Amino acid sequence: MEAAMMDSRIQDVATPVFELAYNGQSITADIARYALNISYTDHLSGESDELEVELEDSDGRWLNGWYPDKGATLDFKLGYRGAALAALGSFDIDEVEYSAPPSVVRIRALATGVQHPLRTRQGQAYDKLTLQDLAQRIARRNGMTLQGKIDGVDIDRLTQYHETDLAFLQRVASHYGYICKVIDNNRKLVFWKRGDLIDSASVKRFTPADLISWRARDQLSQVPSAVEVSYHDPNKRALQTARAAADARAPGGKASSADVVKLTRKSGGKLQAELQAKAEMEKRQLARTSMFITVDGAPQLAAGRNVDLAGFGKLSGRYLIEQARHRLSRQEGYLCELELKRAAPADKGAA
Fold first, then answer.
1. Reduced to 3 states, what is the DSSP secondary structure of residue 62?
2. Are 187 and 144 in contact (CB under 8 A)?
3. What is the pLDDT of residues 218-251, one digit of tens each?
4. Can you tell me which residues the record assigns to a coiled coil (predicted)?
């Protein structure tokens, strides 16, 4: 069973539809007429994916028999009638909010993959292993399958400081230029190399005429001239420094500030420190130019994918989706609100 929420702008072209299941049982037909807004937010890293369902409740059923049970789950699918719907995941209900008048209930749920064992804080030390070994160990401990290519990164020693497994792994992965995320209902732990995402092909191309709204932020003075990571060299018994300079060919272009970012980490040696300096510079260059756009909804607009923006002058280029909010509403239909970071400037003459 599927439910449609139609936008007058596109109702003669495509009808957006959704499916919602509660504890594995479809409730789409039961709630469709009460649904005001449904939004799904897909984060590339650092935060839990979220589902929020807003429903009218004039007869008070959500205060009584329909009040969600503790530990209940929601499964959500979204797309257009006549095409296969995208399964966007399973979510644990985290919060119920009620307001009146008018009587409205808002149900907020977090991706199942970051619940339960992954949320348990613990302290532990790890010695003489690779990033791949660490990811595999944490995946197995939480009953998940590890996916993605991880280059050989040797790590002498790491300490998990009363952190959750996921927060700890995301922190370490970020130091070496990787992004990791739990997907597929807590079954898969996926690693991506940030550089590979930046270089991947775009799934959509937009011009200003294609956008419902947009705004841009270009932090002209935010790209440092270099990043330095200090590390202890046991052979020389002294503090050494690895350095990564701004790359004019990278997303943020040449340095826009004379500042040097200095970090001190337990890197384990020269190679590890060099990798960390390079990863930090890559992250800072990527963060320079941001776009926030609203477009007609499309399930393939997911965090970690790229889109091309053309016709925006010096802001044109290939952009990485850092956050995608898919919003279905009674008034506006299916829209996507995207937070983008520029992965590459437009080819010369293509702006």
1. helix
2. yes
3. 987 778 889 999 887 777 777 888 898 887 777 7
4. none
Domain 16-110 CATH superfamily: Baseplate protein-like domain - beta roll fold (2.30.300.10)
Helical spans, DSSP H, in 187-329: 194-199, 270-286
What fold, for 201-219+289-345? Elongation Factor Tu (Ef-tu); domain 3 (2.40.30)
Would you kindly state where each structural domain of the chain is located, as residue ranges?
16-110, 121-195, 201-219+289-345, 226-286
Measured at the CA of 111, the angle between CA 295 and CA 103, to 5 degrees, comes to: 75
286 near 198, Cβ under 8 Å? yes
CA distance 168 to 125: 12
φ, ψ at 130 (rounded to 5°): -100, 165
Average pLDDT over residues 65-75: 89
pLDDT confidence of residue 10 = 42
- How many Cα atoms within 13 Å fall on the side-chain side of residue 280? 25
Contact yes or no for 49/41 (Cβ under 8 A): yes
Residue whose pair of structure tokens reads 């829209």 in the numeric block: 335
What are the structure tokens assigned to 6, written together?
Answer: 């139609």
Peptide bond into 234 cis (omega under 30): no
User: What is the DSSP annotation of 122-142?
Assistant: EEEEEEEEEHHHHHHHHHHHT
d(CA 248, CA 17): 45
Topology of 121-195 in CATH? Phage tail protein beta-alpha-beta fold (3.55.50)
User: What predicted TM-score, i.e. pTM, was given to this entire model?
Assistant: 0.88
Q: Cα–Cα–Cα angle for 247, 251, 255, nearest 5°? A: 45
d(C-alpha 212, C-alpha 200), whole Å = 25
Closest CA to 317 of 327, 326, 307: 307
At residue 118, φ and ψ (nearest 5 deg) are -65, -15
